[in-house]
UniProtKB/TrEMBL annotation:
Residues 76-155 form the GHMP kinase N-terminal domain. Residues 222-293 form the GHMP kinase C-terminal domain. The gene is mvk. Pathway: Isoprenoid biosynthesis; isopentenyl diphosphate biosynthesis via mevalonate pathway; isopentenyl diphosphate from (R)-mevalonate: step 1/3. The keyword Cytoplasm applies. Pfam families: GHMP_kinases_C (PF08544), GHMP_kinases_N (PF00288). This is Mevalonate kinase. InterPro entries: GHMP_kinase_C_dom, GHMP_kinase_C_sf, GHMP_kinase_N_dom, Mev_gal_kin, Ribosomal_Su5_D2-typ_SF, Ribsml_uS5_D2-typ_fold_subgr. It comes from Nannocystis radixulma. Keywords: ATP-binding, Cytoplasm, Kinase, Lipid biosynthesis, Lipid metabolism, Magnesium, Nucleotide-binding, Transferase. The lineage of its organism: Bacteria, Pseudomonadati, Myxococcota, Polyangia, Nannocystales. The keyword Kinase applies.
């Protein structure tokens, strides 16, 4: 008999609205949970000594969680299970998700949060779930800010500072977010290293850029709370420029941002680690025109409700 798992668990995806990269250095970020996260279902294998399997067809994942595995997702999942004193054998775990993986929409945090919940059960506290998720997230990059895990576990719109309790943000008007996948995969660890290398090379120039990203977050939160979408759109454009200065944008993302603005977006920026992943645009009065400008990229339109 292996250690039991609960039959079903869920977690949110996430989109970073403002503050990526600077959040690694202790500046604030604001992120929104996406309902299209992940659902995991666990069923016992016929022989409890068989390895745990993880199958997520939407992400082309079909893995056995062997202790010697060098697959990063297997290693991350084993870290989470070890952190939670979960089983090491005997379960088949199947996942379904509407999120693309490796696109900066929090797929790995959603997976590790939901996995921790399979062990801990539906009554688990958010802090415990986040701690377990972070054990897995460290496999993907050594110094995660913790933002992804927090939003995956909690949902909503959150102001997050590393090491502090997050604050729930209440939008004064619905936020019309258009998430446009570039289709270009990227590595969060590489992108965090690019930003760090620029900071170490030119600290007196780059530190103020990080501070400006943090200021854009505080102004953005004020704009979100007051339903001031025009100001928020300008802050998206400013943040995209600052992220370019941190060396984490790319010509493809810069072109997409310009195309989104030309198609009526109030503002557009990269979201997440950058150099691939997704563009985040704040839709204007005609969101259909914006989504129609990227027909082959299958944009995802999410309206975050006012509260
Ligand atoms: O993995 P992504 O694309 O969601 O990016 C993570 C955001 C960073 O700020 C770049 C890193 C972090 O740990 O917060």
């Amino acid at each position: 008999m292996s250690i039991p798992l609960h039959p079903r668990a869920e977690a949110h995806g996430k989109v970073i609205v403002l503050g990526e990269h600077a959040v690694v250095y202790g500046y604030p970020a604001v992120a929104a949970g996406l309902p299209q996260g992940i659902v995991l279902e666990a069923s016992p294998r016929p022989d409890p000594r068989l390895p745990i399997t993880l199958t997520i067809p939407a992400w082309d994942l079909d893995l056995e969680l062997h202790p010697g595995s060098d697959h990063p997702v297997a290693r991350a999942c084993l870290e989470v299970l070890a952190h939670c004193d979960g089983p090491v054998t005997g379960w088949a775990i199947r996942g379904s998700s509407a999120l693309p993986s490796r696109a900066g929409l929090g797929s790995s945090a959603a997976l590790t949060v939901a996995l921790a919940r399979l062990v801990y059960g539906p009554g688990a506290g958010v802090d415990d779930v986040v701690a377990a998720s972070l054990a897995g997230e460290r496999v993907f990059h050594g110094e995660p800010s913790g933002l992804d895990s927090r939003v995956a576990a909690q949902g909503g719109v959150l102001r997050y500072v590393r090491g502090e309790p997050p604050r729930q943000i209440r939008p004064g008007a619905p936020l019309p977010l258009c998430i446009i996948p570039s289709g270009i995969p990227r590595s969060t660890a590489d992108q965090v290293a690019r930003c760090r290398s620029r900071l170490e090379h030119l600290p007196s120039v780059v530190r103020p850029v990080l501070i400006a990203v943090g200021q854009a977050v505080e102004s953005g939160i004020h704009a979100i709370e007051h339903g001031d979408l025009d100001t928020l759109g300008i802050l998206f454009d400013v943040a995209h420029g600052l992220l370019g200065a941190l060396d984490v944008s790319s010509p493809a993302l810069d072109r997409m941002a310009a195309d989104a603005r030309a198609a009526g977006a109030r503002g557009a920026k990269l979201t997440g680690a950058g150099c691939g992943g997704c563009l985040l645009a704040l839709a204007g009065d005609a969101p259909d025109r914006l989504t129609a400008a990227f027909p082959s990229l299958r944009p995802l339109f999410v309206e975050v409700a006012a509260s």
